[in-house]
Amino acid sequence: GKVAIQKEDLQKYHNRDTWFQLQHVDADSEVQGKVHLELRLSEVITDTGVVCHKLATRVLECQGLPIVNGQCDPYATVTLAGPSEAKKTKVKKKTNNPHFDEVFYFEVTRPSSYNKKSHFDIEDVDEVDKMEIRVDLWNASNLKFGDEFLGELRLPLKFLRQSSSYEAWYFLQPRDNGNKSLKPDDLGSLRLNVVYTEDHVFSSDYYSPLRDLLLKSADVEPVSASAAHILGEVCREKQEAAIPLVRLFLHYGRIVPFISAIANAEVKRTQDPNTIFRGNSLTSKCIDETMKLAGMHYLQVTLKPIIDEICQVHKPCEIDPVKLKDGENLENNRENLRQYVDRIFTVITKSGVSCPTVMCDIFFSLRESAAKRFQGDLDVRYTAVSSFIFLRFFAPAILSPNLFQLTPHHPDPQTSRTLTLISKTIQTLGSLSKSKSANFKESYMASFYDYFNEQKYADAVKNFLDLISSSGRRDHKSIEQPILLKEGFMIKRAQGRKRFGMKNFKKRWFRLTNHEFTYQKSKGDHPLCSIPIENILAVERLEEESFKMKNMFQVIQPERRVLYIQANNCVEAKDWIDILTKVSQCNKKRLTVYHPSAYLNGHWLCCKATADNTPGCTPCTGGLPANIQLDIDGDRETERIYSLFNLYMPKLEKMQEACGSKSVYDGPEEEEYSTFIIDDPKETYKTLKLIIEGVGTLEQEHAQYKRDKFKKTKYGSQEHPIGDKSFQTYIRQQSEISAHSI
To answer: Contact, 462 vs 382, CB < 8 A?
Structure first.
């Protein structure tokens, strides 16, 4: 069975659960496409002086016909209701947009004596009113089952009484097979929740006032008085507001300051560090939406390979003794599950360098806000970030990979159970809670978690969180201590102070924090050289021919100063290049080109240029996806936000009342106003006034557009084909045109 909803009815069911009766499915009812016809009714005077009426039906073309079993070879048949036989066009091969341009003639009325009337007599009129022309579209098939029906069109000839000629486009309709024997409830019902939005988007300049008001939300003090925050307050679901807001702010590069502002405000209202970012607030919904948009590629490179393996191999991983299948061994299952958890945990905690910049910048802001608010809690800077990256990003993606485009379909029950157990464990590992075994209601999960009760797992999580929430940008207001990201011995070449020679290569202890890259003679010594992160303009491999040494890379600084470094092996070299690139990828002066070889003996070995300040000859690799470019239409998102404000206009007006009440009355808050967060009634009222004015202006523009569109809409044109419901409108429109002409 099927459920079919007319497009014009979708808005009636928007965002509410509805039961729909299932209907029977048959090929005759599944149609699409449109057909272009011209009908002409004319009088013909015979040689004997009598008159008869003939109908010329011209089938011009079709568009958007369905492709059946990979092919479409359409043809049309035309029939006049009554004894006349069907007439058929030529078959058009391999196209679902066929051009026929064929004319067929039908005799409509019997010959009678010519009486010089321009139309029918009464008897003729009755006959014509009962007639209809039928056009059927078919796909010519070589199969033994016959040709496939593509759609039909039935037109009553009575509308030709208004005018003897009509040319128009029509939607093809399903075939009425007369099967009325089945009751509508024979197949049962289906409960659906349909979310339908339809936006009519103007050009950019229409949205300037509302868009500018929204984009400056991050700079409004307090942020609760900003337009974006107010949208979150009036929408029934925070998610409704978060989706267009995030897309708009991402499009205009303002997402980080906006989320930083609303997150900081939320942290200030939070009393207990254990509940930080745990509610479904505007902040959490906006961060969720940002991670979904910007983090899809990150999930693909991190989780997809191992998720694919789990879905394909089907290793038994059930560890609940009650659910064990016959022949399964509990210890073997626990070991299978442990290996999967270990591998996924490792790929996640090693993936910090791949985390998109926009997510890292948001996490840095969360970390800072949490650390300032709860200075006595050393773990809150970690839990503020893990509550998003583990609980709202990785764990849900493992649990339901199909929702995050990691698998095409929902996994089978056994695989789904395996992913559930992995997701639970990863979520707990990432939470860094004090008593992790107690987090599990099930005793079998608590005992399984004992495998992971080692400090190395907590350390790996903290190192990962440190990396993705660190910032190379120095902020003097920041209370953040430098975060150690990597350290170890490597060999470096002196930076041009001595003539070339092996003596210029020295073993040094290198240390990278999110603030600077340093080296010293030994661990713990005073740094011999310090390079601020903002001075790292590129980190690239160095070709072996430069110094006849493997595993070398270069750190390029301002004024063409280059630090050449040799790592212990190729893996270490890649790790250092990745992490240095990661922490410096937001630097505004990053280079786009570099020299892959060294400058020796008065020239660059790669391009032979003699000046040491010659721009690079090779494009920088960039190393990592610094950010994901998204296909977002800023005007459409602003239109969506306008629609939400318009929908919730009563709440905006109620919020205005609440501001007035708070301004003049300092006592206990009225219950009807208590749902709104209003920190500054005066500023909030100002913003509300601007929002209501902006929404009112756009509403007038929409109303004018609809009036103009109605005047200009021509039913039967290619853009507005005639369907079942628009046919009467078309007839009425044609009658009005005829009357006006008369």
So the answer is: yes
